[in-house]
Structure formats: C-alpha cells, structure tokens
Design brief:
Length: about 400
C-alpha cells in the first residue's frame, strides 16, 4: 500500500515519493462557492467594499455571538489584531511583555511592533503552554502585560492566569488563534482575560483568506480598537489615536461568513482525521499522538506528535525523510523564540522545559486536503520506518551525514 519494500525505496534515498502532491499541515478549508458568492453580492450591490460594510458588521455580530462575548472587532490579520490590542492594554510607563518562548514564530515581532520588550517565560511540561507558575518569576515592576497563548492542542490554564492577573494587577490577554472552537472548563474560549485575539488566515480553522479579530466584554477597548484599525479617525478628520490601516474588507468577510456557516462540517472532518491518526499511530511505540481532551469541545485542527526515546531517527532526520515523501511534516515551534536572533532586545532566563520540548515534537499533515486514506498511508510509512530502522539509519548516516 505504500509501495516500499526496503529502505532503499525511501524518497530521501532516491525512491519514489509516497505522494505525488504534497500533504501539508494547513487547513485550507474551502466553503461552498455559491455561498461565498451569495454573501459577496450583498456588498457588491451596496458598493461598499470596505470600511465596516454590511458583511464586516454581520461577521462581527456572529463571531461575538459564537464566542459568547459582548464585542468582536475584526482586522486585516491576526498579527495586527494582536499588536493593536497590546497597545491598548499595556500598563503605561512599563516596558516588558511576558510571553512564552515556545510559541507562534512571530510573537516577539508582534511585541516589538507594539513597542514592548518580549520577556520570555517557560512552559508547563504537560500543557506545553505558559502557566501561572511559569509566568510568576518573570513579573517585575516593568511588566506591562501578560500575553498568554493557547497551545495548539487543548488550552492553557486560563482561569489560573486570570487569578494571577487579578492578584498582581498586570493585565492579561490571550492569543487564541489555535482555540477558535475550544471550550475550557465548560466556557467558550473568547472571554478569558481582557481580550482574546484570533486569525482568519487561510491556514487556520476559519478561512477568511486573511483576517483577524478580537473578542472582549470591554466596550471601551472595543471602541478604541475600532478607531485604531481605521487610521485613528473618529468622525471626519479628527485623528484621536496613533492609527494605521488594519481594516478587514468585505470580500474577506464574505469568505469568513461562508466558512463560519460550515464550521461544524469542518470540525467533524477534522475529528475523523484525528481518529484515523489515533488508530494508525497506536501501534507505533516511538510516536505519541498528543491527545485532545475529549471532556471539552475541540476543533481537532492540528495533529501534534512527540518522538519518544525509542524512535530510531532524530527529529531532523525524520522531517527530512517525510518531506522527501511529500509529507510536509514540520517541527513544532522550533527554534523557540529565545533562541532566535532579533534586531530588538529580548529578555530570557533559563527555560529548561522549553528547551527540551522544542526538540521532540512535530506536526503531521492535516486539514481539508488530507484524506483518511492519506493518513493510513502516512501511519504505515512511519511504521515501515521503525521496522527498517537499523538499515535505514545506516544508510542515512552514510548518505545524509
Ligand atoms: C497564525 C498565527 C498568528 C497570526 O495570524 P495572521 O492572521 O497570520 O497574522 C498569531 N498567533 C498564532 C498562534 C498563529 O498561529
């Protein structure tokens, strides 16, 4: 079924790739085109293409309802949603933002654009996310804000972080890009902290081509964010805030609305893919699938695995081997942010858990374009790697030193 009889048949050693077309880790969900066009007619006929047109308003209303918050403010990207929210929430006169190092690749850049210095904290070994215990040692009299990031599987200890924020007076916001559909302690993600930020990039759960949004129960914050995303104008020429153009346009809102209509279908398909991986990877002793907490609701968007001590290859060798097969597996958040060189200052102590986790995890293909049959073949290939480990490792060491 995978067309390989010996380790010489691996594509990395000159064999034929398992897949002709790459299988990636991006969601790339494509809603029904008729639905997308139907939404698009609304703004097209009204000739309002941007500047909080009818579809942006409808999308914001529906997303606020979906997350159970009073307000939702949309943006041209998740990145600018984060930057502007940080600017609104940071305590004045303070300069540092505490954030995990094992996280979204551009998170430190987000902080730099917002004018703050990233101060990296460690993560909890179980949740792979920051926690009250990992944040606390990094709080000081320069701390302006805590940037909590929900990990890609399950959520961080949001209630514990809220308690830490209440105790210390340092405001708390969330990057909830990976948790659009998640519940935590029976509460929908979206209303934790002062605000939560989401992305609608095509690779994420809710595809708006590009886009982002912020959910909050704070009306003043919502108003300020709306001003800032549109040049800081309030009224005709009355510039009240340092603004920039970070608005979502109508055609992106049309796509996001069409995708939102079908979100349940996508999550159902994601769950089926996750089940196939659960079955396929179960018998492979060197690979552990990071499991979703089924007591809570999840979007099952991403497949994350840990390579255990009895897995025969290094992660880098494994990625090379899989990528040659057109299985576009990727290292999970590696290198961590505190290991990267940046043109701005960052602060970091020793982060032992981050260091160790950053070496061992990878993402496997998932999303709209990956079938259950693909997943069976990927699982069989991984099993074949393990069964041929000794021979394969010898060849890899010789030919790919
Ligand atoms: C993708 C992503 C973002 C940025 O969103 P964009 O819409 O691509 O700007 C932020 N945080 C996390 C965790 C992400 O995965």
């Amino acid at each position: 079924m995978i067309g390989k009889l010996s380790s010489a048949d691996f594509a990395v050693l000159g064999g034929k790739p398992l897949f002709e077309r790459p299988r990636s880790t991006s969601s790339l969900y494509r809603p029904d085109i008729e639905k997308f066009l139907e939404y698009s007619k609304v703004f097209y006929e009204a000739r309002q293409f941007t500047n909080r047109g009818p579809l942006v308003q409808e999308l914001e209303r529906r997303l606020a309802e979906f997350h159970g918050t009073r307000h939702c403010v949309s943006f041209c990207s998740g990145f600018w949603a984060l930057v502007l929210t940080i600017r609104c929430l940071a305590l004045p006169g303070r300069t540092e933002i505490v954030m995990p190092s094992l996280t979204y690749r551009r998170m430190a850049d987000v902080a730099a654009w917002a004018g703050l210095t990233p101060h990296f904290c460690d993560v909890d070994a179980q949740s792979m996310a920051l926690s009250p215990e990992t944040v606390r040692p990094h709080l000081n009299d320069k701390t302006a804000l805590i940037m909590a990031v929900h990990p890609i599987v399950n959520c961080c200890d949001a209630s514990g972080l809220e308690a830490l924020s209440a105790e210390t007076g340092v405001p708390l916001m969330f990057d909830a890009v990976e948790s659009v559909y998640e519940y935590l302690d029976g509460r929908k993600v979206g209303s934790f902290g002062i605000a939560e930020c989401f992305s609608m990039h095509a690779s994420k759960l809710l595809n708006g081509f590009e886009g982002g949004y912020v959910t909050t129960n704070d009306p003043e914050l919502a108003n300020r964010l709306m001003l800032m995303r549109g040049f800081g104008f309030s009224g005709q020429d009355n510039v009240e805030e340092l603004g920039l153009n970070a608005k979502l346009n109508e055609v992106h809102a049309a796509m996001a609305l069409a995708a939102l209509d079908e979100l349940e279908v996508l999550v159902g398909d994601n769950r089926a893919r996750y089940r196939s991986y659960q079955v396929g990877l179960k018998e492979i002793s060197g690979i552990r699938l990071v499991e979703f907490d089924e007591a809570e609701q999840s979007g099952y968007k991403i497949i994350l695995v840990e390579l255990l001590d009895d897995w025969p290859l290094s992660r880098e060798q494994t990625l090379k081997l899989l990528n040659a097969e057109n299985i576009l597996a990727r290292a999970y958040y590696a290198p961590p942010l505190h290991r990267k060189r940046t043109e701005y200052e960052t602060i970091s102590g020793t982060l032992p858990v981050t260091e160790s986790l950053a070496e061992r995890f990878m993402l496997l293909p998932c999303g709209h374009l990956v079938s259950e049959d693909d997943i069976n073949r990927i699982s069989l290939l991984l099993r074949f790697v393990q069964e041929n480990a000794t021979d394969l490792r010898g060849r890899l060491d010789r030919e790919l030193p």
